[in-house]
Design goal:
Radius of gyration: 24 Å
Structural class: mainly beta
Distance between the termini: 30 Å
Number of strands: 33
Largest sheet: 22 strands, antiparallel, barrel
Shape: globular
Number of helices: 6
Helix content: under 10%
């Protein structure tokens, strides 16, 4: 795929060369603050922090009442060689399903399935149209600059797939780093696995006040997985170690041009290529899956008007043995998006009103060998109105409306309402009460509709209704110590849940109704004194997901039982200590048992606990700055299976070096 980069670039530039009409100036600045030590709740010091300008589509501004977890950019940098799957499962109480080391990894928000999570890259949903999800093992943290994790239904803000939650990935320039910066890094680990990257960043100011910024990054990795063992046992059950190899490579290109008044144009390119081989040394059992994605995005921002055009191509090739005639799948998406934001102060109601209106159009073209017809073309669209009302410093509310359109379906209307109220607002203590009710939807994937024999052209869109309440307490315990405590409870009822029914030869059908309910608890403590800082974050989730209605006479015994591969209890812990240039982070992860049959008749996957640690230090040699990371994974050498009932890797180590010139 990367060999065809010049042709793809030319096609993308031709496609994205459109013009937008400028509108009146609007300051869409959003302020974010980093809470450290005793400054957490000090409003005077918060106002002194520099504001971060968020460009383009920032849906989290209108997700009032929903739980949104923003990941610190310093943490992304510390784990920059990891994939999104490896990183997220220790940072949030969401469940992951992995098929093996370097293989497919999918996410489950709040007891839902992988296809109930929207993944947005700079405002564009990058879930595969064929399978309706994203393989998180193919997304490195290097592909973006900022990330937020949103829990609960957000279809009114995001669109399809955001039933259980969504991930918001952003590219953002660093206007402070003037001049030219070159970076190179390499990591080597156990089992003969390694990662590498080279990149270039620049920022330049012209005499006319125009700022130019860019980032070029080329990365690659190879997981040879040369395990010393052929099987692992936990004393009760033995799991084989499946031989596999994974090769990944990608290119990220971001370009920004910003005028003095804040208007800007940006171009984003992200190419990925992932090659997975199972049983590489035994030709009769060999399986190979090659996936690639080409993502082009051109973004225009004039005043309060934003316009995006994008092209996304997803390719999947799957074959066995010699891989001479693999099954081929290619889907292309042509995307156009426009939105306009209005600001009103003290008009109809006290306070400030932010109103965003917009729409999106997507044209699909699919060529898939396994489909019952040769070529598929389809049009989809969205129209939305997002309203955020700040009544006072204590009370904020939002009302969001979205109507999706499809040339094949009648899509449910998806409104939402959310509020946030500061019950206690003091310099050293804040207690926030929040709530949200929202409709959600998920359009059927192309595989669910067109796959030969197993597909179902009459499959219906999913329709959900989510309710949740939350309390969050932040308090300065002393001048050096601060803490926060949060709890969120949710009830998510989903009609027409899509299900590949094994009782009917895995033909897809609507499962009638599924209820996902539960609660999440979070605890955070931070201490800072001089060069020393430390902290602990702990997140626990109780997720109960079960079928509520019977879809056939044979399913009576599974009503009310936990769905497969969904742990009832999930716990993550992170403890860190930072002293001068040294950083130590210890991570813990616990999953309760997971059932692998709907009627719970089979032996479930056992519960397990994983422990990781990272030691990092920065160094400086003249004009060269560097960072050395030493990481140890699965320190307890826990034996636990993948979804395919193969053993996951035991204790292993990685060492990495990053240099900046």
């Amino acid at each position: 795929m990367l060999k065809s980069l010049p042709k793809l670039l030319l096609a993308g530039i031709c496609l994205l060369s459109v013009r937008a009409v400028a509108a009146e100036k609007y300051d869409s600045t959003v302020a974010f603050t980093l809470s450290v030590g005793s400054d957490t709740l000090n409003p005077e010091k918060v106002r002194q922090l520099e504001e971060v300008r968020v460009h383009g589509f920032s849906p989290d501004r209108f997700m009032v009442g929903l739980k949104v977890q923003r990941i610190d950019s310093a943490l992304l940098s510390a784990y920059q060689f990891q994939t999104l799957a490896d990183f997220l499962q220790y940072q949030s109480p969401v469940a992951f399903k992995s098929y093996g080391s370097g293989q497919l990894a999918s996410i489950a928000f709040r007891g839902t399935s992988a296809s109930h999570t929207a993944v947005l890259w700079n405002g564009i949903n990058i879930n595969s149209p064929t399978v309706g999800q994203t393989d998180f093992s193919t997304i490195p943290l290097l592909g973006f600059d900022k990330m937020a994790i949103q829990y609960g239904s957000a279809a009114s803000c995001v669109g399809t797939d955001a039933v259980g939650g969504s991930l918001l990935l952003h590219s953002e320039p660093d206007w402070k780093q003037h001049g030219l910066n070159f970076t190179a890094g390499i990591q080597y680990g156990s089992f003969d696995n390694y990662n590498g990257r080279v990149g270039l960043r620049f920022v330049r100011n012209t005499q006319k006040g125009i700022q130019l910024s860019g980032k070029t990054l080329l990365y690659g990795s190879r997981f040879n997985n040369h395990f010393k063992e052929t099987e692992r046992s936990n004393g009760k059950q033995t799991y084989p170690m499946e031989p596999s190899e994974t090769r990944q490579m990608g290119l990220v290109q971001d370009l920004y041009l910003k005028q003095k008044n804040g208007d800007y144009v940006s171009f984003h390119l992200w190419l990925t290529d992932n090659n997975l081989t199972i049983q590489p040394d035994v030709i009769q059992f060999l399986e190979r899956t090659q996936t690639s994605a080409s993502r082009f995005l051109l973004n225009y921002q004039w005043g309060n008007t934003n316009f995006k055009t994008a092209f996304v191509r997803d390719i999947i090739d799957y074959g066995k043995a010699d891989f001479l005639t693999p099954s081929h799948s290619q889907t292309d998406r042509y995307i156009a998006r426009a939105e306009h934001e209005l600001l009103f102060k003290k008009t109809f109601v006290p306070g400030q009103t932010n109103l965003k209106i917009g729409g999106e159009f997507v044209h699909y073209v699919a060529l898939v060998d396994g489909y019952s017809i040769n070529a598929i073309e389809e049009n989809r669209g969205d129209a939305f109105v997002l309203l955020r009302q700040t009544f006072s410093s204590r009370l904020t509310a939002s009302i969001n409306l979205r109507q999706a359109l499809s040339s094949k379906y009648k899509v449910p209307f998806t409104p939402s309402f959310g509020f946030e109220y500061l019950v206690i607002s003091k310099t050293d203590k804040k207690l926030k009460w929040s709530g949200n009710i929202a409709r959600s939807y998920r359009l059927p994937t192309l595989n669910e509709r067109y796959w030969a024999v197993l597909g179902n052209p009459d499959i219906r869109p999913e329709n959900g209704f989510n309710k949740e309440l939350g309390l969050n307490l932040e308090q300065n315990l002393s001048e050096k110590l601060s803490g926060n405590l949060g709890v969120n409870a949710y009830h998510n009822l989903i009609d027409d849940w899509t299900y590949w029914n094994p009782d009917k030869g895995y033909r897809v059908e609507n499962l009638q109704q599924v209820l996902a309910k539960g609660a999440e608890f979070s605890l955070g403590i931070k201490y800072q004194h001089g060069h020393l800082s430390s902290g602990l974050t702990s997140q626990y989730a109780y997720n109960h997901t079960s079928q509520q209605r019977v879809y056939d006479a044979y399913a009576v015994d599974i009503v009310g039982k936990q769905l497969i591969y969904v742990p009832l209890h999930t716990l993550t812990n992170n403890a860190f200590v930072r002293w001068k240039n040294w950083f130590l982070n210890v991570q813990g992860l616990y999953y309760s048992e997971r059932y692998i049959t709907f009627d719970h008749s089979g032996r479930p996957f056992p519960p397990y606990f994983l422990l990781n640690t990272l030691l990092s230090t920065s160094l400086k040699l003249g004009k060269v700055q560097g960072q050395v990371n030493l990481q140890a994974n699965n320190l307890t050498d826990t034996v636990y299976p993948s979804v395919k009932k193969n053993a996951m890797p035991g204790r292993n180590f990685n060492i990495g070096l990053v240099l900046n010139f």
